[in-house]
Structure formats: C-alpha cells, structure tokens
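Morning. Coffee machine broken again, so started the prediction first thing and wrote up yesterday's gels while waiting. Chain of 237 residues, entered below exactly as on the submission form.
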Amino acid sequence: MTTTNTLSSTRTDLGYDDLRGLMSLMSGDEKHDFSATSTLDALWVLYDRILDVSPETIDEPERDRFLLSKGHGPMAYYAVLAAKGFIPVEWLPTFGTFESRLGHHPDRLLIPGVEISSGSLGHGLPLAVGTVLGLRAQGIDSRVVVLVGDAELDEGSNAEAIAYAGATGLDSLTVVVVDNASSSLGWSGGIERRFTVEGWHGTRVDGRDHDAIEAALTHRAEARPTVVVAAVESKEA
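Came back before lunch.
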C-alpha cells in the first residue's frame, strides 16, 4: 500500500488527521469497523491530552493506566498507539494475521502499552476497580481510565463494579462510556444515571468534540469515581 510510505514509523509528527490513514492499513475485521471508529476521538483525546503515560514510561509504577474493555474492535486503539510511538506503524498492515502481535483482541503480553488483554464484554470495568485497589494498597494515586461500550453495560459483572467503586470512593477511577445506542434496553434517565445513583460523578458529552471530552476528563471529583458518557452517532445510522 502506498500509505505505508507516507505513514512510516520513522515519522514523529503523526497526529489526529493521520488516524484514518493508519486505520486503513488494517483490514480483515470489517464487522467491527464501527466499534473501532466510535472510540477514535475519545482514545485520541486520552492519549494526546489526558493520560500521563508514554512509550518511555510504560513500566513506571506511577504511570497512568488505560484499559480498553471494548477490545473487540481494536483498530482505532492500535492506530492511536502507533501515532504516539508505542508500536511501529509497520505492524499495522499485519493486523489479524497468523504471526502478528496485533490480534482481533489486544494482548497485553504482545503489545507495548496495553494494560489488559480484552475482548470479552464486561471484564474491563471490574479489572479497573481491582487495579485502583492494587495501586491504593501501594500508596500510588495514579489515574486509571477504562473505556467501555454502552452495550457492555448489559453484562452483570459491571453492576457490582459500579456499586463497589461508588461506595468506596475510588476517585482515581474514570470510566469512558462510548454510547452508540447499541445496548439492548437502555437505562431510565440515561447511562450516566446508572452510575450517579451509586455515588459517581457523571457527565455526558459529544463524543466527537475533543474540547468537550478533554474538559470532562480533566475534572476529578473528590472521593467519587467519574463517568464520562461520550455520545456518538447510532450504530444503526
């Protein structure tokens, strides 16, 4: 592909405008294209403006942690990791092939900067709660951000994690819910109410507005975890 030459890993100035080109290097999982593109803006804002982590600090104990629970559509995640130098751009065209590090679900043992292996819905938020508790036990107050899809919240494993995090005031925990209206039943009062009734601080933003996403993610409530619902176009649109 000619795109490979213009997006070489030797470049150090890759930005948001390059992400679509980076994603075009990956093929073979068109079923989950929308799952990936729905997360693109939230992921970029996190890595470009919010998270205190870099390719040089991925093993530092006090780094911020990002957990992709919505791991069944990882192409946008891989594109952002490549743009930020965590992985080489040359890995992207190998996506999903037999010997590639970049599987259809991210593998933390194969990809630098990936905190959890994910793809099974409903695992990321409980793992994020456990991560915060583990860091708290070590006296580390680093931020833990987990990105989930709205349909993932249909999984019962999240209910216990939401209730526990709210009751114990895990204020270093932030959940980003990418809402593309794909949940089975929805929630009375909106997704954010699913969290706020358990003591969370909740905000809803336009999931394509980078400044709005940044403002919501910059806020940290005292003694309360935070949820940011990033609303994007409907999956059926």
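The CA atoms of residues 216 and 228 lie 7 Å apart. Going to sketch it on the whiteboard this afternoon.
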